[in-house]
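Quick one, T. Sequence first:
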Amino acid sequence: MPEEAQLRAPLVLIADNDRAVSALLTEVLARAGLAVQPVYDGETARNRAREPEVAVLVCDLDMPRLPGIEVIESLADLARPPAVVVVSGFLDARIQHRLAGLPFVRGVLAKPFDLLAFAAQVRTLVRDRGDAGEKRAEPTLNCGGSSVSSSGLSPAASPLA
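Structure tokens:
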């Protein structure tokens, strides 16, 4: 039975082709007590994110095989899409506008970002999974403190500032 319960546990899917960033985010969320699975390309992310046990999709925008924005937009036809947290090193106004039109996008984080705030946000989204389609948090745009970038931990700085 414990294996069955673990299989049914809400899952956080991390879609980022940078394996170092993916490993760091996976470790942070696993230490926060969450079930996490990394994927490294957009096509795999799109297919896996449609599975019902995926409660939260953490998605980079720059990925091979299918851009992250297309992965996210492909979930709009689901009756209950996973909550999405976008993590990206580059966010232009056009992409932000597209993301703003998707009610299941619950956060937008510019790399580097605060890892503790990120973990807390994802834990809340997993916990509140039942309300994901009804409540919408304002997107988060970077926080100070321990941060993630393509090279790992670094001081927080917003490329949007």
